[in-house]
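Worked problem 6 (solution included).
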Amino acid sequence: MSSKVITVDFDETLAVTSSTAWGGSTLIPVERIVNFVKSKIDSGFHVYIVTFRNWDNKKEIVDFCNRHRINIKDVVCTEGKNKTEFVKKLNSSLHIDDHIETCTLLTMAGIEVLLVDWGQEDTNLMAQFFNKI
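Solution. The predicted structure is:
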């Protein structure tokens, strides 16, 4: 029997970047997404992060997940490439992302998506066609 899999984007989905007082930045968890992902893990899903980031960012993502007790299976860095083939290869039944073009392409490939709602409908009418979280 194959495992149930969901995939989730990292930036502006699982985490947001916040500026610090000393001019740096820190990653802050997006609680509604983190809680949803943890509930999926608790119900037996394997969760993979699929991000546009480069492979040299993987450690930062894994450290973030460990720090916030998000028990991911692995991180896939597409290095800016379209996520569709990566998500399909993982046999994901659901992908969570804030990027409307990614959600559109995955939907066209037959993969269910949840759009992270940051008010994108104000600037992109395509946002109205997706289920949101």
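Discussion: Helices lie at 31-42, 58-67, 84-89, 100-108.
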